[in-house]
Amino acid sequence: MMKWLICAVVATTLLCVAPLSAQADEKAYVPAIKVVFEVRSPQGDLRSFQRAGEPPTYWAQELPVVQGDELTINPMITTGGAELAELRVRLDNDELSSKAEPPWRVKVNTADVEAGYHMVEVWAATKKPNAMENSATATFLVVPETDPLLRALGGATAESGPPVTDEERLACTIRSRDPKADEQLTEAAAPTTVSKATLFFVSAGPAVREFFYTLTRDGRVTYVSPKLPIETHVLLEPRNEEGQGQEPGRLIFTMRAGDGAGRFGAPAWVTVDVKALEAAE
After folding, report:
1. CA-CA distance, 131 to 27, in Å (whole number)?
2. Is 90 exceeded by the pLDDT of residue 186?
3. Residue 17 pLDDT more than 60?
4. Burial class (CB in 10 A: 0-12, 13-18, 19+), 42
5. How confident is the model at residue 7, as a pLDDT?
6. What is the average pLDDT value for the chain, to the nearest integer?
7. Which secondary structure element, helix H or strand E, spans residue 245, and what is its range?
8. Which segment of 79-93, 155-169, 229-243 scores lowest on mean pLDDT?
9. Is 257 exposed, middle or buried (0-12, 13-18, 19+ CB in 10 A)?
10. Which of 232, 193, 197, 195 is nearest to 212 (CA)?
11. Which of 98, 135, 136, 203 has the least C-beta neighbours within 10 A?
12. How far, in whole angstroms, is CA 231 from its chain's centroid?
């Protein structure tokens, strides 16, 4: 069971780093890699989410991909003049492409992709000495057409048009009032443990007016909240004797921040390990 409390918010920033490397006598460029997705409906239109009477929000990184959509993976490679030796594209560790020459674009029919989060990895190497190489990853969420998340976003396909680029303005992160949980949230590779009632909140910039959150287990969205004011806190707790709270196990906790006009930025999401109440510290 989820409970909502009223508290305050703080701002956040995101940082991206591109690696470079140099040898003593000659530059040995490490490929700089960016993974870009393009999503189109089965009819060939850009995937969009539109509510009646509101402008459409076109698909942005990590918004849901509806099963049956065509996902195009666009690797963008910079080698600083070094010749590219090979580029490989993997989806959930299954190799989709391995090439030494462009084009690098790879198309995926998501009708055969299971619902849930999936990871794309792009690996590239140059012909410089010592086999200079690098890789980049990106994730996307696939949901069936009947998923409640689509009803929350508005899943109608509108006419093709330019994407809405509000990702930075409507970016958010997930924080916690519990010091231990908040410390775990800052460690991207580590799950956050919920072994007692734990307060979470959205941290975002001044453009954000509302948010909603989802809970996902085993690739299925199990709960979609209503739109909530940004000062609302979310209480996650292990299942108690009265049957309130979350079952033990791993879930994905996702928040999306909006501007109050139907536009939502890319989601922030964390992995949460819910412990049985009797095992709580």
Report:
1. 13
2. no
3. no
4. middle
5. 36
6. 79
7. none
8. 155-169
9. buried
10. 232
11. 98
12. 22
- Residue 48 CB contacts under 8 Å (≥ 6 apart), including other chains: 56, 57, 58, 59, 156, 157, 158, 161
Amino acid sitting at position 46: L
Phi and psi for 47 in degrees, rounded to 5? -65, 130
Nearest partner of 213 among 247, 258, 154, 262, judged by Cα: 258
Q: What is the DSSP code string of 186-225?
A: T-TTSPEEESS-EEEEEEE-TT--EEEEEEEETTEEEEEP
Under DSSP, the state recorded for 44 is: S
Strand order in the sheet with 32-40: 32-40, 70-78, 106-109
Which two tokens mark 21? 């490397």
pLDDT at res. 52? 62
Give yes or no for residue 54 having a pLDDT over 90.
Answer: no
DSSP letter at 219 equals T
The pTM of the full predicted model, rounded to 2 decimals, is 0.50
Residue 4 CA to residue 144 CA, distance in Å, equals 28
Going by C-alpha positions, the residue among 199, 204, 197, 192 that lies closest to residue 229 is 204
Q: State mean pLDDT over 172-178.
A: 92
One-letter amino acid identity for 116?
A: G
Question: Tokens 């195009």 label which residue?
Answer: 72
Q: Which two tokens stand for residue 264?
A: 């939502």
Gap between the Cα atoms of 129 and 210, Å rounded? 52
pLDDT tens, residue by residue, 98-117: 987 878 889 999 998 998 88
- pLDDT the model gives residue 51: 66
Q: What is the DSSP letter of 62?
A: T
> How high is the pLDDT of residue 278?
56
> Which residue's entry shows tokens 């509108």?
158
Q: Is 212 exposed, middle or buried (0-12, 13-18, 19+ CB in 10 A)?
A: buried
